[in-house]
Amino acid sequence: VGSDPKVRAGAVDVVRHWQDLGYLIIYITGRPDMQKQRVVSWLSQHNFPQGMIFFSDGLAHDPLRQKTIFLRNLTQECHIKICAAYGSMKDISVYNVLALSPSQIYIVGRSTKKYQAQCQFLSEGYAAHLASLEFSLHSRPKKNNSRMILRKGSFGLHSQPEFLRKRNHLRRTMSVQQPDPPSSNPKPERAQSQPESDKDHDRH
To answer: What is the pLDDT of residues 173-204, one digit of tens each?
Structure first.
């Protein structure tokens, strides 16, 4: 609707916690792929760690079904094992279809009797959740090198993410950055703070 959605306190730190442990970060939304640039820009502006981004292929009448299809393809065809899944109460049904245990599903908001046995409610917010993760057995370092395909850091606004299309209209955005094509009238880039490691990478 043209407004900038606010970031919940501690949300970025929770995602970065999982990235630092070596896990692949996956962002999935029911938004259409035509909003790709706005969503990636928002993630970049708020310093969310890089990851794979999945959109609906065009306007979806049933975005929850689209999410289920996307995640099912990832687990069945790409053999990705989901360690932790975050979302709102409407996402509980999606994660249940994927046979995730309640201890793997984290939902923001107040606990309700209807769903309290199906997930972990983060009623005290992400900051408190992060504190519990740091002492939890659920957040152990990843033992393989599955994250090597993604550069560690935050999304950048200086280049366009590359789209890759899979079967069943599975569209995914990889955060592997490609250089912009040369232009006769280059537009000035927006100022963006960048970790020193990323700056060095760009210079090379």
So the answer is: 333 444 455 554 544 444 444 444 455 555 54
- How many residues are given for the chain? 204
Beta carbons within 10 angstroms of residue 113's beta carbon? 6
How far apart (Å, rounded) are the C-alpha atoms in residues 44 and 197? Answer: 16
pLDDT of res. 95: 94
Q: Which residues contact 176 (CB under 8 A, 6 or more apart)?
A: 149, 150, 151, 161, 162
- Segment holding 16, helix H or strand E: helix 11-20
How is residue 28 written in tokens?
């999935």
Residue pair 122/108 in contact by the 8 Å Cβ criterion: yes
CB atoms within 10 A of CB 102: 15
Using CA atoms in the order 153, 157, 160, 164, what is the torsion angle rounded to 10 degrees?
Answer: 40
